[in-house]
Amino acid sequence: MKPTLKKLGLVFVLAGVAAFRALALDGVVIANSSVAADSLTADALKDIYTGKTKYWDGGQAIVIAVLPDKTDAALQQACGMDSSSFKTFWQRLAFSGRGQEPKRADDAAGLVALVSSTKGAIAIVPADAALNGVKKIDIK
Amino acid sequence: MADSLFGQDYEPAGQAQLEVTVRARSASCAVFSGHKWRQQKQICKTTMKKHTKKETKKVLLTAALGAAAACNTHAYDLTLGTNIPPITVHGTASQGYLLSSDYNYLANDTKNGSFQFSEFGLNVSMNPFPRTRVAVQGFDFDVGNAGQYDPFLDYALIEYTFNDKVGLRAGRIRRPAGIYNDIQDIDLARTFVLLPQGMYDARWRDWSAGLDGAEVFGDIQLPTHKLGDISYAFYAGQVEMQENGGIARYIDGTGMAMVSTLDDCPAYGGQLWYNTPVDGLRFGASISYLANFGFTVSSGGVLAHSIGDSLTQQYSAEYLWKNWTFQAEFQTYDYTGKTHYSLSFIPEGSSNDNPDSWYGAVSYRFNKHVQAGTYYSAWVDAGQKQNDIAVSLRLDLTDWWVFKVEGHAIEGTGLLRDMVDNPHTSNNSYWYMLAVKTTFSF
Q: Where in chain B is the domain with CATH 2.40.160.10?
């Protein structure tokens, strides 16, 4: 009896951890085709968007691109900051010499084109955006 | 009239020092009338002409950066070739206005309103090699007698990131200390026009903002993401003191002595942040040690050389929750020094200074255009005090244009630091200040 209960408890704990880790993103994560990664964990995505991870595994600089207003919910889900806080956060890094501000696009098509043409770029686009010339990154 | 400014027995220690004094104390060269003041009148005219040129330059620079921001709300990317990484360019220009009910604070004539409150920054950065970044920022500012629109190299660094845990940057860097030290003069990066001045004195950036040296930095994940992570930065180098910086102006502002030399000094320190597993909540601690900070002042023909060490500790808490931002910081500063005089019969003196300051701040963002905030700050040092309640409104009119208006209710005068412009001060005085600022950025 006891070993069975123990196993059951472990299953519930692992399910809880999995549920805690899962990220329901209101958008799709895309990257430039030069990026080797096909997937990221939710924590890795957050580390990128909060400036803790600045380079891909091969040493290529990570270039974050954003679409203000249209993907605010997804941005909040990814890094815990709303769009205004996110902008201020990166302005602080840029003007103190500790980072580079994300690039901004005016619409989804422009954002996809920006990511497509910028080595190392990553962005969150609306779920219905046409993903021409970029790769989709799965968030685990 | 000039006698009342300088005293009948005044003898300027040098032309450069007289120029500074003239700028600070005289709005018109007509005060220098009569044969006795002929040389001073000429210096005054030259000084005023230089100041007018600088004011013109400031207006043109603000207009240029504002136009650049309006034309392009994003950073400029300069492409030098197909195989060369692009260079990213950002800029910011701020112009402020200060008006006080009593005393002249931060700028020279705030009782009548002053525009001596400007900042301009232009930076470029690129990633030339894997894991490598190069960044340079030029800066120009004016706060009362500090800055004086003399542009300087704010930071120029090369950074190599081994991995998320360890990176190294070297060159001229901004010093991390608390929430705001390394962005203390970047208006668009905060809600308030004036940060709590007991902790982030707008006139003292040459002392506090940067150093020439190196810094090791990184983020260390605790065993699981559920425990959060530690961000760290430790630095060592040399602080370059500026002749027209806040420290020199502070000494000049006593009205009793003028700075002859101001030594650069070694600095060591670091900043730790514990980023908790709760989104937006972090706690910080920093320490900064300046060794052998030395300066020589002249007063009545006597030279006095002071040298001492200072230790600053700062503790911070910040919580970003939904549209709210909560911040609190405490800083304690200890200075110990000795003074030697050029006249041998004057014995060596010793000095100690131990001010403490703290503040609590709250701000709320109503939408992407409107944010309001308030803080209470306190500063105390050997019976002197200055407490401040600030209420601020920030308007993000566009992506590239910010406008702020802020009111201060201040008790005490401990931070005025300019006896020449404020001969009568009182710990028990209550006075008010209006601060307005607009910023363009791209």
A: 72-441
Q: How many domains does chain A have?
A: 1
Evaluate whether ipTM surpasses 0.90: no
Domain limits for position A59: 26-139
Residue A66 lies in a domain: yes
In a domain, A7, yes or no: no
- Beta pairing, strands B370-381 & B401-411: unpaired
Average pLDDT of chain B? 85
Q: Which class is B72-441 in CATH?
A: mainly beta
Say which residue, B25 or A62, is predicted with more confidence. Answer: A62
Torsion of CA A11, A17, A21, A22, to 10 degrees: 30
Q: Token match 């009896």: residue? A: A1
Better-predicted residue by pLDDT, B5 or A22: A22
Cα radius of gyration (chain A): 17
Q: Which residue of B has its CA nearest to A104?
A: B74
Q: What's the CATH code of the domain at A52?
A: 3.40.190.10
Mutate to test the interface with B, among A98, A111, A114 (most CBs of B within 10 A): A98
pLDDT for position B361: 98
Of A54, A91, A92, the CB nearest to B161: A54
A window 16-75, beta carbon within 8 A of B: 43, 47, 52-55, 58-61, 68-69
